[in-house]
Amino acid sequence: MDMNTFFKNAIDGLKEAGNYRVFCDLERKSGAFPRALRHRADGSTQDVTVWCSNDYLGMGQHPVVTAAMKEAIDRCGAGAGGTRNISGTNHYHVELERELADLHGKESALIFTSGYVSNWAALGTLASKIPSIIVYSDALNHASMIEGIRHARCEKRIFKHNSPEDLRRQMAADDPSRPKLVAFESVYSMDGDIAPIAEFCDVADEFGAMTYLDEVHAVGLYGSRGGGVAEREGVMDRLTVIEGTLGKAYGVMGGYIAASSLLCDFVRSFASGFIFTTALPPSLAAGAAASIRHLKASELERAKQRRNVEKLRARLDAHGIPHLPNPSHIVPVMVKNAAKCKFLSDLLLDNYGIYVQPINYPTVPVGTERLRFTPTPLHTDADIDHLVGALNDLWSRCALAREVA
Ligand SMILES: *Cc1c(COP(=O)(O)O)cnc(C)c1O
Predict the structure, then answer these.
(1) Which residues form the Aminotransferase class I/classII large domain (predicted)?
(2) How crowded is the C-beta side of 190, counted as CA atoms within 13 Å?
(3) With 357 labelled, which of 48, 129, 194, 334 sits at a CA distance of 20 to 30 A?
């Protein structure tokens, strides 16, 4: 087989289906968040405002975070120099793990090189090592959880999205003596809906199951100290494992689990994805710890973000531009057509300097294509007016349906 033909055919298939991805080549401007310089293929540049960043609070450019990272580089240099077990554990890692355990009210925490790796490694290890375990997984769980569970080759059940009733029905049908684990998220990234965490914990308790909650889209953003939705709802102690990222609201990079000392020690001791990889650079650990510490004490960023989310929703409603109602910070503007969604995104970027990535199948179901906006505390009223004005123009120009609120 000619491999080049094979690669090209596979890529052409994506292009024909409209699923081929093209990067937007951006240069983020520190101190001017959410502005960036876009580099076009022809070498020219354009000033843009980013409206789809997961740096939800702009912490990636917060002076407290960048200063901590610079100081750590000056003190410890660039890389960690090894795996955690072989010379790679730096004091900054130890401090970050303490900060995370405290954030979630757990005995311990364990950091990984990304949120993806933390889900893959923690779920993969628990589910492959615990004999005869059954894992119950929400139908809309993130790829990193699905891959971890699949890698474990354990028995698994998929329950209906955010349905404690379906979970209960499936658990009741299984052997009561087998160990069980329920894996779900708090805030779901594409629809911005939030899981009924306490109800899931009730069902898990009834059947003696462990609970594993991915708070990746919630840490830093919800709860009075940024501990996530579980903190806001006072249920952190009911979860066996809370998993999060340092790469979204905390603005840096890395992932973690927080749980009992024994569980963390178990994963630390058996997870290949933890053991056999170089530790995070000390500067990332220092920046993440500074970001977490700042957001434990400061409500300012969260309050401004909530205000901007409300403001954007109200302005969209005033123009009848349809967006999915949800209780989170994610504002999905529904286009419901893949080609139009891509077309709108291109026009917003080229003609208005607004960068928002189109979200099409397979990320969301066909017919629910959308533009996913994430207002931050640092978008201005003028940014919001400019965005809604642009959408209003394009809605008329493309004859898209409006909704009367
Ligand atoms: C982004 C994401 C992850 C992975 O986190 P990274 O730190 O980006 O690797 C895990 N779970 C969910 C739900 C996510 O959206």
Answers:
(1) 47-391
(2) 16
(3) 194
